[in-house]
Write a structure and sequence with these properties.
The protein is an alpha+beta fold and 884 residues long. The protein has seven domains: 129 residues, Rossmann fold (3-Layer(aba) Sandwich), CATH 3.40.50; 155 residues, Orthogonal Bundle (Topoisomerase I, domain 2); 133 residues, Topoisomerase I, domain 3 (Distorted Sandwich), CATH 2.70.20; 129 residues, Topoisomerase I, domain 4, CATH 1.10.290.10; 56 residues, no CATH class; 56 residues, no CATH class; 37 residues, no CATH class. The protein has 24 helices and 34 strands. Strands 7-8-14-13-10-15 form a six-stranded antiparallel β-barrel. β3 and β4 form a beta hairpin. α15 crosses α18. 41% of the residues are buried. It catalyses: ATP-independent breakage of single-stranded DNA, followed by passage and rejoining. It comes from Rhizobium lentis. One of its GO terms (molecular function) is DNA topoisomerase type I (single strand cut, ATP-independent) activity. Belongs to the type IA topoisomerase family.
Length: 884
Amino acid sequence: MNVVVVESPAKAKTINKYLGSGYKVLASFGHVRDLPAKDGSVLPDQDFEMLWEVDGASAKRMKDIADAVKSSDGLFLATDPDREGEAISWHVLDMLNKKRVLNGKSVKRVVFNAITKKAVLDAMADPRDIDVPLVDAYLARRALDYLVGFNLSPVLWRKLPGARSAGRVQSVALRLVCDRESEIERFISEEYWNLSALLKTPRGDEFEARLVSANGKRLPPRAIGNGEDAGRLKALLEGASYIVDTVEAKPVKRNPGPPFTTSTLQQAASSNLGFSASRTMQIAQKLYEGVDIGGETVGLITYMRTDGVQMAPEAIDAARRAILDQFGERYLPEKARFYSTKAKNAQEAHEAIRPTDFYRSPDRLRKFLDADQIRLYELIWKRGIASQMASAEIERTTAEITADNKGEKAGLRAVGSVIRFDGFIAAYTDQKEDGEQSDDGDEDGRLPEINARETLAKQKINSTQHFTEPPPRYSEASLIKKMEELGIGRPSTYAATLATLRDRDYVTIDKRKLIPQAKGRLVTAFLESFFTKYVEYDFTADLEEKLDRISAGELNWKQVLRDFWKDFFAQIEDTKELRVTNVLDSLNEALAPLVFPKREDGSDPRICQVCGTGNLSLKLGKYGAFVGCSNYPECNYTRQLSSENGGEAEGAALNEPKNLGTDPTTGEELTLRSGRFGPYIQRGDGKEAKRASLPKGWKREDIDYEKAMALISLPRDIGKHPETGKMISSGIGRYGPFLLHDGSYANLETVEDVFSVGLNRAVTVIAEKANKAPGRGARGTPAALKTLGDHPDGGAITVRDGKYGPYVNWGKVNATLPKGKDPQAITVEEALALITEKAGKAPAGKPARAKAKPKAAAAEAKTTKTAAKPKATKAKAPAKSKKG
């Protein structure tokens, strides 16, 4: 009997069926060791020795693997075919060696790019040894990320209260988003005019031609800069006669693109389907690991972490057969197409993302997949099959026309494209963002019959005013594309990097656009001022290239770390002498458009408008940065620093109170004010004054006397409960609008309900809460935020949000997510690991919650030293899976 180690239990189950009774397939559940999330896990003074921690769940799984290996004939390490998968195999092997259970047994590494019987059996027949340079590259990357995160983040905490973390790739990605925002702020719109003529042929067909030259001078785009010039040219065209100089029709061929890589899949899924990068990878993981197709679990796509663009020869042959069957002979090119990667050292997994079987068309699988799965599979299938299809044949026609007005001449041009043969477009076309040219080859429309030297009749002259637009904000897709172009990060890291920026509140997403928040811009400005080198695009890309050279066996990983650490440590040491005043002066200058937006009256935006003499400046408080007056405490003007406030913030957010009226009960004035945490209502003055912040969704400009009175009067008594005789009241708390009765709370759906809910409805809401949670103080089962899939032992695994935060649920087992973990990003492997650990601790039949970082038994949880080969995952978390 041989032991096979894979990463996920879903794969273990499927692969065990393929291999039969002579093999025992066990899952590692992702990584089995991690760097503890504390300082001192990587030791530069000891030549970058790393300390590895094994938590209780991983220790138990490794014990199961070790026990199986003891009685086995050999071990096959079959983790994923990328750098991270190689590292997991290395970790497993290193721990088994330390347990002394191998005793000369055969150990082989096998990789398969798809979870199909053929792919698995072929891989088992062609094993290899662990790729040491690939592991070295992983170790170097892990150590670098740890050293940057655990040395740079504390500097931020000391110098920029409210900032949460910095990272080697994360901070550079954030800089891209912030730099784009600065471009938008600096952008000055310019006026330009476009002129065109609506013309008619002798056959009565109309078409439009645009002005491209006047009086022998070419007019480049946006050359007509004002209405006066536009009017003069329009007059020329109005009185002109028109004749066709030349008509040229050129055949153009458009070739298909290669199958998807990780980054191009994430970009296409964002543009075509509206999926986030993390959502795309979550769905792709499921399609790769396998779906039940008529009683058989089958992997539907190849491995989805790759920067390779080529398909295996047998896949190309299968795609060509499918094209012949489904599209016809015309759509099949004479020879197969071959693609080469643009990546400098593509190594993640060497084949592009493609269907494992091109005869499994989307229509055949529709009944087996959920809505999002079929949409992503269809995208992959279409792109894969299109990559081997014939070129699209397009005829592009250009007509050059002369306008003659009593010797004054102008040139016009009409362009049209016609698809003569759709070719690969019959299967797949990309959707573009931000006005990029479409892929359909028909962006100019179709021209009617036009012949050289014939006279045209003028129908109408169009003169339209335009203004230049600032560059668009990045979407997830365009940011990934830019990072790939610059060589920053790697495909397998993009989704996690973007998720981190959102989790840290450095960026928000609005209408699929990434908007940097004030906190993110402060961090970027700080790093650009005091750690310039480490957020430079070229430096980061050069470091990525060195990591790739390590994986190719060209560089020593320890030497790369030594070279990096020498300069980086010196920079960290220099910041110890950095004064907060130096930081604020630098940030005031770097973020002037955000901190001191221009005023409509043209006055100095740095002068306080309340006292008239103080200078405004960034201030640092416990909860982050805000803008305050230098004359504090005599002048107590403050306002929030917000990317959304813009110039409006200066006038609207002044601390000069706005009088709304008088409370009829107390006789005190109601005022609308703004503080460092936003606008609020205040009744009275002094320390005893009552204050109430505006609820989420309420705008300052909409606040009137009635709203202010309603808000400041909370909590609101609704009436006595008919059964208990105790008062029911409504209010707004930390977790939103609520009802309070007899010490128990029940949530209300909206803020407006707080002010309008009546006694009957309140009693119903309280009763519904009680029915969900019988017994005093008990809680009902919250609705599932998402369903991850089925547990190997049966039953659904869900993610839910409870009183103490989000958790995963399986049957009676509840396991709290690690702190900071996005509940939407958790993978089934991570959930299974938490559930397994929790189930092992809870008394039989008794549900319990797992802590974010469970204490393991001394024999199971331990920290090990590795001098030669250290390991790494994320610098923060106890979850041991690289997915998500």
